[in-house]
Amino acid sequence: MDIEEIKKEAIEKIEKIKENIDLDLFRKEYLGKKGKIRDLFSLIKDLPIEEKKTLGQKINQLSLEIEEIFLLKENSFKKEIKEEIDFSFPAKATELGSLHPITQVRREMENIFQMMGFSVVEGPEIETQWYNFDALNIPEGHPARDALSLGKTFYLKNGNVLRTQTSSAQVRYMQKMKPPIKIIIPGKVYRYETTDASHETNFFQLEGLYIDKNVSVSHLKAILHKFLESFFKRKIEIRLRPSYFPFTEPSVEVDMLCTVCNGKGCAACKKTGWVEILGAGIVHPNVIKNGGIDPKKYKGLAFGLSIDRPTMMKYKINDIRLFHSANLNFLKQF
Ligand code: PHE
Asked: What order of strands is seen across the sheet that includes strand 181-190?
């Protein structure tokens, strides 16, 4: 048996190999279960122990060397394959995500208000009870604390709450800024609701606050009218209906002439011809005082609208729960 001979032969062979399939055959011929190395081992099986040992070491050595040239060749093939990649070939198109419909509408609303001179600010979602209730003229024991939120408020162990309304940021900004103040506060709010097609435990609101020397209901009406026409991109008719919020006086609810039936009455407006879209009013003097501003010198108007509702109206979405469903088929439409 000539180990050197086998090695030489293997090197010559592998040098000629040009294709993967031959390389495979080479591996089988030398390193496989029925390959030449195995054959060599079985040849020395019955030799005396000393001879078996020295020859065994040599065969092992040979096996390692052949394996090495095999791996080298294999690697050079891989490299060649890599180099064959055509980098100018057009790539597979990747699927792009899109902004959530709520985010799109929120940004659209922000733009409209910014054009009217409002600054966009945010407030904390975890809020003290004071900012969420007391500062807004809703002291403990006040019936509105019940109607508006008790039983609907998520209380945290430390006494804080998940804000039930973006109005909670009003007094925070009054304390920080000097009038005139002209801000909107978009953000998430939380209420312990039984969820159905039109109720969610968290949804989005957009709060508006305008404080200056001579602010009146006619400013409120003009701002909201202008906003709604820009948002829905059509003529809009609105009406103010007297209502009650502890933090505004007078308080109004704003209805919009139903865009589906043009006021004739249909299912979307519950046959009334009007759709309620937001709450608003003239900021209560107590609230202005809580903000560290003199209510004798300054007046304010405030409004709070849902972002979810107009998004649903705009895109004709009939179930609010879809927004948080992570349903890709729904989201891909936007
Ligand atoms: N915070 C009120 C609500 O959640 C809306 C509102 C805001 C009313 C500002 C008046 C003034 O329903």
From this structure: 119-120, 181-190, 202-212, 299-306, 274-283, 248-257, 238-245
Q: What is the mean pLDDT of the chain?
A: 89
Q: Residue 27: what are its φ and ψ, rounded to 5°?
A: -60, -40
Note the residue count of the chain.
334
Mutate to test the pocket of ligand 1, among 170, 171, 220, 245 (most ligand atoms within 8 A of CB): 245
Which protein residue's CA is at the shortest distance from atom 4 of ligand 1? 165
How would you class 136 by CB atoms within 10 Å of its CB: exposed for 0-12, middle for 13-18, buried for 19 or more?
Answer: buried
- Residue among 149, 167, 249 whose CB has most ligand 1 atoms within 8 A, to mutate: 167
Residue 253 Cα to ligand 1 midpoint, Å, equals 9
CB burial of residue 235 (10 Å; 0-12, 13-18, 19+) = exposed
The residue to mutate among 133, 138, 165, having the most atoms of ligand 1 within 8 angstroms of its beta carbon, is 165
Q: Ligand 1 atom 10: the closest Cα is on which residue?
A: 280
Residue 327: predicted pLDDT:
87
Could you tell me the residue ranges of all domains in the chain? 3-84, 101-331
Tell me the C-alpha distance between 222 and 210, whole Å.
Answer: 13
327 C-alpha vs ligand 1 centroid, how far in Å? 31
DSSP state of 318: -
> Over the chain (334 residues), what is each successive 10-residue block's mean pLDDT?
86 88 91 90 88 91 93 85 78 86 95 97 96 92 61 87 94 95 96 82 95 95 94 90 94 87 81 89 97 96 92 83 88 87
pLDDT on residue 132? 93
Q: What separation in angstroms does the CA of 55 have from each of 42, 47, 248?
A: 12, 10, 101
Q: Is 265 left (phi over 0), alpha (psi -120 to 50) or beta?
A: left
Q: What is the pLDDT of residue 143?
A: 67
Which CATH class, in words, describes the domain spanning 101-331?
alpha beta
What single DSSP character describes residue 166?
G
